[in-house]
């Protein structure tokens, strides 16, 4: 037998196994949506955040849905090893109850070409008609899903994400200065002086 054919068969089998696994992952997702009893559309930001990372929001006629991802690294300094847990929060019809502090920062929205300066609250208190939480554990390879009781408080990058996505949902986007309006400042260094 031509060894090339054998090789192709091997690849074909691997590809087939991968397809089966992906298919069963998709079936799990479908069952999950049924069990949680939420509209399929509302689940999309959640799946995007789980599959591709980052924060997502979706506005339909019936629901505002927003998914926010938080990452927590647990590191054991003695053993010098750890893992990063990912927590995804899905909010159905979210509303911000309180914003505290102002943080000026550069952000890049997926829909836009340039990074721009925006102001975000440092801390937000947010509630929703439904809050569903997923914890992705790369150690156990499990995604644990549970309902959560609001309101919840977020700080830092998840608070910025919430503020960003809420803006998309309300359709009121802030306009700021762009990165290309910055100035580069080259400080005097020993290397410069030598030239
Ligand atoms: Zn955006």
Secondary structure elements and pairings:
Blueprint (H helix, E strand, L loop, with lengths): L2 H34 L3 H13 L3 E4 L4 E13 L4 E12 L2 E6 L2 E5 L8 E5 L2 E5 L2 E8 L4 E7 L3 E4 L1 H14 L19 H5 L1
Antiparallel strand pairs: 1-2, 2-3, 3-8, 4-7, 5-6, 7-10, 8-9
The structure holds zinc ion.
The site of zinc ion has 5 residues, from helix 3.
InterPro entries: Asp_endopeptidase, Peptide_deformylase_sf
Organism: Methanobacterium paludis (strain DSM 25820 / JCM 18151 / SWAN1)
Protein name: Retropepsin-like aspartic endopeptidase domain-containing protein
Structural class: alpha+beta
Strand order of the largest sheet: 1-2-3-8-9
Shape verdict: extended
Bound molecules: zinc ion
What is the typical, i.e. mean, pLDDT?
92
Reported by name, the CATH topology of the largest domain is: Peptide Deformylase
